[in-house]
Structures are given as C-alpha cells and as structure tokens.
Amino acid sequence: MTVYAQVALLRPSRHLDRLYTYKLPFSDLKEVSIGAKVRFNFNNRLEEGFIFSLDEERNFSGEIKPILEVLPEELWLTPELVEMIKWISEYYLCSITEALTLISYPEKIYQDVEVFCTVVDEKKLNEKIKKSKRLQNDLSVINLLKNKRGVVRTTATIKKLIEQGMLQISEKPLPNLPSIELSESQKQVYQQIKRDMLKNFVGLLHGITGSGKTEIYLKLAGDFLNRGKQVLFLLPEIGITTQMVDRVKKYFPDNTLVFHSRLSAREKFTVWRQVKKGSPVLVLGTRSAAFLPLQNLGLIILDEEHELSYKQEETPKYHVREVVYWRAKRLGIPLLLGTATPSMETYAAVISGLIKYYYLGKRYQNRPYPQVMIVDMFKEAKEGNTGIISRILQHKIYERLQKGEQVFLFLNRRGFAPVIMCRKCGYFYRCPDCDVSMTYHKEERNFQCHYCGKKIAFTSKCPACQELSLDLYGYGTQRVEEELKKLFPAKIFRVDYDTMRSKNSYDKILEAIKNKEADIIIGTQMLAKGFDFPDLTLVGVLNADQSLNLPDFRAGERSFNLLTQVVGRAGRGIVPGEVIIQTFNPENYIIQAVQKGNFQQYALKELSLRKQTGYPPFSRIFRLIIAGEDEQQVVEGANILVNLLKNASKFSSEIEIIGPAAAPFYKLKRNFRYHILLKTNKSSFAREVLKAGLREFKKCSLNYKLTLVLDLSPQIFL
Ligand SMILES: [Zn+2]
Ligand SMILES: [Zn+2]
Ligand SMILES: [Zn+2]
Fold this sequence. Notes:
Layout: E1 4-9, E2 20-23, E3 37-42, E4 45-55, E5 67-70, H1 79-91, H2 96-100, E6 114-119, H3 122-131, H4 133-136, H5 139-147, E7 149-153, H6 156-163, E8 167-169, H7 184-196, E9 202-207, H8 213-226, E10 230-234, H9 242-251, E11 256-259, H10 265-277, E12 282-285, E13 297-303, H11 320-331, E14 335-339, H12 344-351, E15 356-360, E16 371-376, H13 377-382, H14 391-402, E17 406-410, E18 419-422, E19 439-441, E20 446-448, E21 455-457, E22 470-473, H15 477-487, E23 492-495, H16 503-514, E24 520-523, E25 536-541, H17 555-567, E26 578-583, H18 589-596, H19 599-613, E27 620-628, H20 631-648, E28 655-668, E29 671-680, H21 683-699, E30 707-711
Parallel strand pairs: 9-14, 9-15, 10-12, 10-13, 11-12, 13-14, 16-26, 17-24, 17-25, 23-24, 25-26
Antiparallel strand pairs: 1-2, 1-4, 3-4, 3-5, 6-7, 6-8, 18-22, 19-20, 20-21, 27-29, 27-30, 28-29
Bound molecules: zinc ion (3 copies).
Family: Belongs to the helicase family. PriA subfamily.
Binding site for Zn(2+) 1: 422, 425, 462, 465
GO cellular component, one term: primosome complex
C-alpha cells in the first residue's frame, strides 16, 4: 500500500500556491502524522515542508516523487496547527506559505535547553559544591540546592550532576492553587466566571482601570494549571513588562513560560518543546504565542482585547482576537476577554448575547474615579492664552508640585513643532515622499517625517517663494518640555519615541518615575497604558481632539479608549486623582463620556452611529490598497479592479463596493495609494467575490508596477 502526502512548502515558490503530492517511502503510518516535517526534492532542490494531509489514493496524475526524509518529531507541527494554518489562509486570503510564517516552528533541535530539575542527593551535592569554587559561583546550581528544584539550562555542569545522580530531570509539578487575596467584588466575579466556564464559553471581563482584573485571571489560571491543563495568557507587546512577568511567576514559579517575538531561537525552542509535550504551563505571551503547539490547552485569556496591536499589519494581516476565537471554539475550551474599554465588536456581541458579560466597576480598594474637568481651549484663546497649557492646568500643576506629588501631561505628538508653514505664501511643508506634514525636531535641528523617517536640515527658506519666512506652529512633546521648564523649577521627564530608543531606557525611566526622580512627566501614548505610579495625582490631557478628528470611523472608539487609559493613570495611590482635559470640542460625546467614566453612554451612542452608517460591527469591511509610483497607473489599475469585483459580485446587493478613492494617506514613501472597500454582511460570499475578482485581475496582466495589499480585518483606514 502506498500512502500519498500533501506537503506545504516552507519557502515561497514561484509557482501556484498549493500543496504538492509526494509518496511516503514506507507504509507504516506510525512514522508520520499530519504536521510532520519532511524533506523532498522540489525543482531539483532539497526542500523542507510540512505534511498537510495523508491519503491512500493518488489525486495527482503526474510523476510522484518520494519523501526523502522525515525529521525528528520535536520539529513537527501538531495537527491542530495545520488546521489553523488552513483556516488562516482561507479566512485572510493569504497563501499557506505566508500563513506558516506566523508559526515559530524550530529550525533545529537544541540540546542545551531549559528543563525542570529536582535535587535527588542533597548531601552529595552539598559536599561537591563545598569542594568546588566553580560550582560555588554557578548561580543555577546554588539556586537548585536552595530550592531543591527549579528550571535550569542543561549546561555541561548540570548534565554532569545529572549523570552523577545528584540531580534528576522531572516532569513539571502541578502548581498549587495560588493564594491570591480577592476583594469582595473580585471574588463575586471570579466565582461567577468559574461557574459559567463550561463548554463553548466566551466571556468578557469589563473592569474599569485599576479594578484588579489580573488577580481574577491568575486565580482562574491556577484552577486550570492545578488540574494539569495549559493556559494561554495573551497581552499586548507593551504589557509584557518585568513587573507583569514577576507578578505571574510569584504564583506559578515553575510553570510560567514567557513567549514573544524578541526571544532567541533557542529560547523559543524551549517553550515550543514544553508546550508540545503538554506540560501544565501558563504561557504569558504576545500575539505570536497564539500560534504555539499547545497540546493540552484548557483556557485562553486575551487581556486588553480592544488593543490595536493585536492586529498584525504585515501579511498575513490577521487579528489575534479572531484567531483565539477560532482556536477556543475548535477545542471547545473557554475564552476570556478582558479590558477597561471593550471594542465595539465585542460589546455588540455582549448585547446580542453571544458573549457573557462580567463587570468590575470598583477600583481596587475602592479608590474613587478621578475628578475630571474639561477646559474649553477656544474660550481660553479668546481670553488671551494661546499657549498649550491652560491657566487652570498651570495652577493645578503648581498645587500638586507644592504637595510633592507627581503630574503626567499627555500629548501624543513627539518632536518640537508639528506644522511648518510659510507666513508669506502659506506653503505647507510636507515630506517630499509622503503626503504628511513634517515635524521640526529641535535637538537635531531638522525636519522629520514621522512616517518614513526622512530628515531634512532645518531651514527658514520657503521652497515655494524662496523667502526666509518658514514658521513653526503647534506643539510636540519637546516644545511642551521647553515651556514647562520656563514655568516650573521642577524635574521634568519626557517619555516619547525619541527619548526611549532602547528597551533598557524604558525600564529605567519607569523605575525613576516610581522613585520620584521626576515631578512632571510629559509623554506620548507610550506611557498611557498599564502603569502604576502611586504618587501621580494629576493628569493633563493637552490636546484631546488630536485622535478624534482622524478620517476613520473608529476614531471615536480609539479616542475613548486612549483617553480612558490616560485618565486611569491618575490617583492610583492613596491620594485621589484629578484630570484636566483640554479640548476644542467640550460638547463631544466622547469627551463627555470620558469625563464621567461612563462606558455605557459612549458605547450606545457609538453603536447607534455605526448602525446608521452600516459600519462594523454591523457589517464587515474588506480593504484593498493599490499603490504605485505612477499615479495614472494606480488609478487605472484600481478602476479595472473595481469593475472586475463588481462583475464577480454580479452586482449583488449583499456587497457594497466602494471606491476606488484616494486613501487618507494618499502618498507614502513615494507611492500613491488608492483603496477599494467591500462592505458586506455575507463575508463568505464577499471572500469568493474577492478571490474571483483578483483572479481575473491577474489574467489582465497589466504592464503596470502596482502593489496590491489585502486586509480582511482592517482596523485603520488611513
Ligand atoms: Zn528628535
Ligand atoms: Zn516621509
Ligand atoms: Zn513661501
């Protein structure tokens, strides 16, 4: 009996994107399974790939070559991951090879990895250490002796001690139930979720900032680990801080694994190996951890479910929320989402009863919601203050500094001045490669494009009228820092991309703020989320309108989320917090809702606006971007594509095909950008239309230089 295998190539081939048929060189199916990594000849080259299906019948009539080698099992995918890749490729319309890039599969087996060790012969080990200076300096050996067990790397030393019978590699023990103290309201929510968490459970834990969601997650995770199950705990990139890792490890010291894209290949392999073995571990990870071969997964937690960074903006453009939905549903395990500001997608599902809802409305230790005051900046200007800091905010800063408390001023714009304009002819200085305004950076004395990074030396000469009449307008963080220095004799920290180039400086600055080395902190959104500074009592939002005015139907949602996070930074210690929001739109429903901390008020209004206009979550939008250096070609190509899509849809009323239109960022990195939107309630039909339209478009083989980007879960429409 011959068995045929369909394999997926790891390397993109110039041919069609499909699976290729090979035959197994043996008939014993025990030696392979779906997901096995194999070697074979492809176009006269030795290639590697994964087996995606096994079949006793040949479904290919040409010559079928044999598989040459089956690689060790530790390098295989699990059958579940194979299913997942197929789904990704169908759902986001990308190739299997592209989808496979999401998986951090190991290239090779590392011998020197982390294992869990227990001390077998303590006396002998103790004697040995006493005699050896080298062992006395080996921290992992000393820690093992102290704790009698622990996670260590299998270095030559450790291997030797194992051989000599002093240590032994063991299975990870089941962790004890963590002794986490819960407040009364936390306890209630925890018990409700625990009761409801049976099969096919999706829940939303909506807890206001500072309400203590993490304790509930960890308590639930403990229940699963204790039963020998695995837990996947996903956080946005910025959330995996040393603080957070320590917090989790405190409860599950032997059973916590951290996974993100910055790990080395060896470190990734260590995690890969343990989760694939089915060890009872909690994986604390960023979105790439959603693609680990977790063999014994019992619970998925997606914290900060509204976060934009859960969407990957490179192909395949997937949203991790959709991926964990799929995974939890397929495995029949519970999925718990959490946030202080639910996404409209999630909240609409709560309203329609698809997601269970749990609310934590009290801040930890009953700390009150900060007092929020709105300052009308039009009025401020009319009364003679055209600066960025209103008089009332100046006064409040002064008050707080007097008391020795900390102030955080939020401005989501780095650099010195964001607008460079000619006062004679009105010329507006834009990046020559992108259609976005350049920002003046004072310390480097240049104009910078924050999109492509282009730098042009400072000049006051207008490129249009040649007069020395370029002026700087508006405020970036650098300029605010300078103004503050004139106003207050205080220690001022600026936290933005320019001051935070290395990861190290980030941790350092957080530490320094905690230690009160700063009185006033001026920062961008890098500092808006998740941090606890107990002495921070006053928050000033310098320009609340900035994100509100973007041409994107989610601008309101993102503003509410961001402002809520910023407001949440105030008063996390004993002293109640206070917030000043400066705006030109004091009556705006988002600003009003942020002031009251009223999610419901904002969400119902936001949803009714979306319903009126038919935007998500009341429809699904697919976005196509056509870009190229020759605008004429881009426009022509886009028009051809729109017509092909309309034909493919047979002008069905189920799909609204919008465009082509110039994208709001109409030119980036010298490329002109046009987009086409497909708005639908029948997304599987729209996918078919998209596939058919693109197939026809390829057949036209236009001799144009165009790039085409597909986004089936677009979050940003710029
Ligand atoms: Zn700079
Ligand atoms: Zn640029
Ligand atoms: Zn000019």
